Each structure stands twice: as structure tokens, then as C-alpha cells.
Amino acid sequence: MKKRLLSAFLCAAMLATMIPAAFASDLDGHWSKNFIEYLDSEGIINPSATTGKYEPERKVTRAEFMRYVNRAFHFTEKASISYSDVQSNSWYYDTVRIAEKYGYINGTGNGRMNPEGYVTREQAAVILGRLYKADPGNVKPANLSFKDKTKVAAWSAGYVKAAVDKGIITGYKDNTFKPTKVITRAELAKILYYYLGTSLSTAGKAYTGSDLKSDTANVTISESCTLSDATIDGDLYLTEGLASDAVQLNDVYVKGTIIVAGGTVTMTNTMSDHIVVSSPMGRLLQVTAAGAARFPNTEVRSTAVLYEKKLTTAGYEGFADVKINGDKKVSLTLDADINHLELDTESTVSTTANASVYRMTASKPASVTGYGTIYQAEIKSSGVSFASSVRVSGYTIANGVTATAGGQTLTGSVTAAVSPESIAVDLNNLSALGKNVAVTVPNGLKIEKIESNGAVLTAGTDYTQTSTGAAISADWLGRLPRGSYKLTLTLSDGKTAAIAIAVTDSSVSENVQNASFDRYYKSENYADVRTRLSGANTSEDIRDVVLGLSSIDYTFDSSTRSLILPRGVLAQLRAGSYTISVELKNGKTEAFTLTVSDSAPTGESWAVEEYNTFSPSEPKFTLPLTRTSLKSVTVNGDTLTSNKDYTVSGQTLTLKKSALERYRKDGTTVVFSADLADSTTYALVIDYVKRK
């Protein structure tokens, strides 16, 4: 009896394994065979459990459409629903709950979802276009080129055009689109196939460019993974299904748009002309640019953090222009240097101490908090405010518009000009100041208040009013410790002005309070920065040297009591002003301002690395090799040998010790030239040092 039962089980198993043959017969000769089979392999579209057939010509219901979308993008979270036509015992109940949670499909009105209704071609274009954050713009049906364009609904025209332009949905041979035609399983399979492109859906897997399909342009990531050494011809979509999972992009070039709808993504040596950051679920999205990263245009449509970390290559400087343009109020945290920040939606922007915005345009109410710097703000809307901890160097305000900074109302136009723009104080020669320093303001204005780094000066003691402005007391100036300060003057017309104060002490002859450094290796000011410390006799007296929030490499010359910041280390900094804090073991801190410039000619590409001959390690350079290749590396007229003198992995070139030792001369700079196939040349600058 047991043998008979076993035989029966084996027969059943054999029949089960034969079912794929039925599938094949259902698709043999059908134009959708490859599309459906691929989606089946991804667990998206499956055959009937009862017939074993795919039924490619069967019409697709709204419930089926939702199920396939949920599977394709790994949507799993559920919302509460109360549609009258979706019962808890129906097979599509959880399917609709998931669709509702991710917000990509709307009900049909009157509390109904119509799950058993059919999906038309234009509806499919709209739903998938929303998922891919397509911008419908102001496209009208008349703007389309199809013969039946008048049949395209106004609400779908922009999405239809976007799908057609990308080759995702095509028209028919007679130049019609047939927008109201119900899609079949075969047509949906084709649409999903091209929207998805290559689906990277295995959690924890390390993908490379060799894993990408050659017949599709897009790439979709729906699970935490790594993608390296890849060129993507279309869009890269990080789906909402990622939640907060981490994604690593290394040496990736995206010709289309990077769409970040989910996840925490770090993009190292990665480039794309356009990024869209948008989560309809309101999740916090974090996007980090690192290494040789370049993103000229970034749109932020929901809560997000933009972070720049260890950018390495000139011309590849992370986020450039950032625009906030969501449908709802947007919160953005910036830990980056931004060229232009556009606020086209009501927003809250928080800037870290390391953040800089060179130009900000606010067309809607906005609150700017944190500790960063706004170099020029163009305020076009009332309701814009800046926290007192945010430095605003200059601003313009449109007529009839009011804004606030540190609780004070800003009106008028340009930040007021006062004289002098800066005051130099030598603690060893205070007599040079006289009894006070005169400050002049524009005619007809008075000084209402003077602040120094947040502290309000006392009128009549720290300064006195004059007919032309004020007289700053030399006694007050002489009480300032060495360092850099800013006087903020509030004038009678509501404008503010700033005066920089630099306090030095010439009795400490080698002390550099306002040090400067040119990161261009050919400049005269490309040199170690030396600062004499009053509170340190040996290196043992120093606990740490800090730039921003991070420690910085240094050496100490005991014979002159001088802190030395090596030029090779400083060359890694971007142009700008930095505060260097020397934390002493006695609990005191000495600080000075370092101004970094970059006099490199336009178009010259270069990078600096140190080679410490005392403790040698092979320096690495990041090159833009996603779109080109390395032809050769030369130095002093010699051509180096690949894999012996240098190696290349992805976009990283490593100079080997064997080559570096041949040209070694401590204390000198040697330039290796990397010639690329696109006729560009990168200067690989090696600073030879010998340091314990």
C-alpha cells in the first residue's frame, strides 16, 4: 500500500513538472513571449493556477494591474481602506490596501475602487508615470502627434507624451495611440518590461554593469544592494519598496534621471545630470554624494537629506543646483555646498555648519535654520525667515515683500554698505587704533543695534553713536581673543550690514591668524601653512586639531612652537573659508581662519595625494572613466607600465610603490599625467613627504 501511495505521489509530482510545457504552448508564436517569460522569472506575472496558461490576450483588470505593480516594485506595506466594492474576503483586498499605501492609483469616486474594471492605455501611462516621477508639465492633447490625439484626455496627455518619448509605450502602425483601449496582459507585460528595465531585486547582492540587460535602458532597484562599474542608458529608479534600506552606487554613470523614491543611497564616483528625490509616503530620503560625484540638477519633492562626503575631484563637486518643488511642504537638510538653491514650494531648510549656499531664490514661504552660510538670498515671497545662527551675507527683497532674520524684519533691497568692511586688531599694538574706530553708514540712517557673534554690544560703553554712524571702542576691541569675528549692524531702515574683525598678536611673530592657501599645485601659495601656538611647547601639549567636525592631519615643530598643516592635506579642501581649532590638553583652544583659494586655469583637471616615504602607502586617484578609458600614464617623459607601475579598477587609478620610488625625492612635488581616450589629461600630483 505504501508503494502505491508513493507511486501516486511521484506521478503527481511529474505532472506538476510538466505544467511549464502548457505555459510554453500558450505563448508559442506570440509576440509577447519574451516579455511575459521575463516577468514570470521576476515573480511578477504568473499563469493561471487552474489552467497553467498565461492568456496573453486577456484584458487586465484594475486589481490585476495593482497586483503586478506591487510585485514589480516590491511594495508590501498596507493601508486601511473603506471602499464599498472591496470586501475583506476578496482575493484583491490586500492588493488594494498596498496600492492605497503607496498612493499610485486613485479610486473612481463615490467611495469605490472598481477593482474588477479594466485599465486603459492612457490610465496605465498615468499610473506608471507617477511611479517614475514623470513631469507631465503643461502638455495638452493638441501637443501630441497621434492622429487620434483629440481622444487623449487632458489629465493623461503629459504622462502619455513622457512614456512615448522614452519609448516605453508606443503607438500603432497607423499613427494612432488608442488611449481608451483596454490593455491586455501581453501589452502590460511589454510596458512593465521596458519601464522596469533591469530589475535589481536580490537583497544583499553586489551587481555590476555586466548584470544589466542590453535590450532595455532603465534599471530598477527594489532591494538593498550594490551596483558598480555600470553605465545606464535610461533612468535609474530606487523604488518606495526599499523603505530605508541602503543602496551603494560605485562608478555608475546614469544618462537619464536618478529617481530616489526610497532607501538611503550613497553615490560614489557617480554622475547624472538630473536627480529627483520624492517619496509620496513621506519617508526621509538620504542621498550622499562622495568621491568624484557630479549632479548638476537635483529636484527635491519630499523630506530629504543631501549630504556631500569626501569629494575628491575638481569639476566633480557633488550637488550643484537644487530645486525644492514638491506638491506639499518640504523639509530639506543640507550638509553640502550648493551653487543655487531654488525654493519653489513652501519649505523648511536646515543647513549644517559645513553647508554653504552661494545663491538662494525663495519664491514661496520658507524657514531657514541651522548654522550654514547663505551668500546671497533673493527673496520673492513674504514668509521667509532665517535663524540668527544662519549667516546671510547679502540679500535682495522684492517690492512689498517682508522677511525676517534672527527675528528682525528685513525690508528694502540690497544689504547695506558700510565703511570700513573690515577691522584689523593687533593686540600687541592697540595704540594704532586710537581711542576708537569710526564706522560710517549711508546718509540718513542710524545704527539701532550692534552685535558680535550673537552678543549685543552696550551703547555708550562698547560703542557710541555719531552723526555718521558709530565709534567702536578700542578698549572693547582689545578685549577680544585672537581670532575672527563679525559685527552685525542693524540700521534704522531695517537693513543689516556686516564688518569683519581679525584679531592678531604680533608679539607671537610666527602666528598665522588669517592664513591663506592656494590648492592649485603650480601656485606660489601652494605651501605648508605654519602657525605658532602660544599654549603649546611640544606635540604632547596638543590633544587634537579640528576642521569643522573632523580631525585634520598636522605636524609640530618644537623648535619654533609651530603647528604645520601639510600642503598635501590642505589640497583636499574645496575653496572657501575654514576655522581651524587647536584643542590643547590644558583645556584651552586656539583657533585661526584658513582661506583656501583655487587659481587653477579653467579646464585643467588635477588632484593631489601625499606619498609618505617613512610609512609608504600607494596613493589612489579617482578618474571619470565611466564614459572613456585610460590611454597611458607618463612622468618626466617616461611612460609607465600598466599593472606594474599602476593599476586601474573601475574609476580608481593606483600608483604603485615601484613607480613612486623611482622618482622619489622627499619634499618635492612630482606630476604624473593620466591621458584619457577622450583627449583629456589629468595631472596626478604626488607630494613626497617623510613623516613619522
Task: Please tell me about this protein's structure.
Mean pLDDT is 85; it is low at 1-24 and 508-512. The termini are far apart. The chain is globular. 15% of the residues lie in helices and 37% in strands. Helix 2 (33-41) packs across helix 7 (185-196). It has a 24-stranded mixed beta sheet that branches. A five-stranded mixed beta sheet has the order 25-32-31-27-28, with no helix packed on it. The chain folds into five domains: 2-193, no CATH class; 196-410; 422-498, Immunoglobulin-like; 514-597, Immunoglobulin-like, CATH 2.60.40; 605-689, Immunoglobulins (Immunoglobulin-like), CATH 2.60.40. A hairpin with a 2-residue loop joins strand 45 (646-649) and strand 46. The protein is α/β, with parallel strands linked by helices and 692 residues long.
